[in-house]
Amino acid sequence: MVVLVTGSSGQLGQSLQYLAPNYQEIQFVFCTSADLNITNIAQCHAVFKQYQPDYCINAAAYTAVDKAESEPEKAHIINVIGAKNIAEVCKAYNTVLLHISTDFVFNGTKKSPYTEEDIPNPTGVYGKTKWEGEIAVQQTWEKHFIVRTSWVYSQFGHNFMKTMLRLASERDTISVVNDQIGTPTNAVDLADALVQIILTDNRQTTTDNFGIYNFSNEGQCSWYDFAKKIFEINKTQIELKAIPTSSFPTPAQRPAYSVLDKSKIKNTFGLSIKNWDACL
Ligand SMILES: NC(=O)c1ccc[n+]([C@@H]2O[C@H](COP(=O)([O-])OP(=O)(O)OC[C@H]3O[C@@H](n4cnc5c(N)ncnc54)[C@H](OP(=O)(O)O)[C@@H]3O)[C@@H](O)[C@H]2O)c1
Residue ranges of the RmlD-like substrate binding domain (predicted)? Predict the structure, then answer.
């Protein structure tokens, strides 16, 4: 089975590369943005023609949440046109698409975990383009899994955990917001869940489970709680202050609450998901 991964130098892409040796039954093809620019449809066709993948994990995205507010066209081209291109080429080669989306499609006014049926209502450019990317995939190719995730971190790339550890080495005090609630997701756990979806789907011949799924680690916390746990585990000496979002204005407005309900992915694929703090 051939699984092609776009955006392979990102956090999720590198996490999939980290896991790949555990899955000898899968031949992974890892494509960086130089190997496969998802905004270039001709290149998409050429790469798919060469590898004829059974599955494609679209881990490529424009992920700079704040920068997207001043670069909406760039975010749109990658997150909407790029997603559409990948869905089109998947359709041409009968490749099942696993497309990754985000909790930022929601505005965060809900008080209980978001299910796959909740209607998106993004507050910023990034969330809007990711939602439009989902719609482009849905309208283009039915053989898709859209996996929404949240607060992704890992030993790879840029993320909140690494930023906290870097700041702690430069400062004596760090202030972190405590009124945005969500769930951190270890990118390696997300990568493993995607592989489980592929293995389950590949075994099935008559039924299909295509559609939207939520995946994050279990539990919930604020960014302040997340930072506190990062420092606790690393035995970092730092004064950590809890502040409200109003004291830390950012170009993009973030959802105040974005915990995802994982019942559907657990029930459909038999996944057991670790708590966010245990896997940190
Ligand atoms: N990070 C989070 O907290 C978070 C939360 C929720 C959902 N997600 C979603 O999870 C997925 C993976 O995120 P991540 O954290 O792994 O992102 P990431 O580390 O920012 O990686 C994104 C990758 O996409 C590549 N890319 C950008 N433009 C491209 C293009 N035109 N063609 C091909 N590749 C391109 C980048 O390559 P270059 O480095 O070469 O530009 C990079 O390797 C994304 O769909 C993201 O929206 C992330």
Answer: 1-278
Pocket of ligand 1 from Cβ distances under 6 Å: 6-7, 9-13, 32-33, 36-39, 59-63, 78, 82, 100, 102, 130, 149-152, 157
- The answer to the question of residue 236 being in a domain is no
Q: What is the CATH number of the domain that holds 70?
A: 3.40.50.720
Catalytic residue among 126, 153, 213, 224: 126
* pLDDT tens-place string over residues 45-73: 999 999 999 999 999 999 999 999 999 99
- What is the residue type of 272? S
Provide the residue range defining the domain that includes 9: 2-159+183-220+257-275
User: Taking the CB of residue 116, how many other CB atoms lie within 10 A of it?
Assistant: 15
**Known catalytic membership, residue 126:** yes
Q: Confirm whether 178 is domain-assigned.
A: no
Q: Whose CA is nearest to atom 21 of ligand 1?
A: 10
For 243-267, write each residue's pLDDT tens digit: 999 999 999 999 999 999 999 999 9
Counting the structural domains of the chain, the total is 1
pLDDT in tens, 93-102: 999 999 999 9
The reply to whether 30 falls in a domain is: yes
* 263 alpha carbon – ligand 1 mean position (Å): 26
CA of 24 to the centre of ligand 1 (A): 25
Look at phi and psi of residue 267 and say left if phi exceeds 0, alpha if psi is from -120 to 50, else beta. Answer: alpha
| CA 268/CA 272 separation, integer angstroms | 11
Please report the sign of the dihedral spanned by the C-alpha atoms of residue 253, residue 153, residue 55, residue 63: positive
61 within a domain of the structure (yes/no): yes
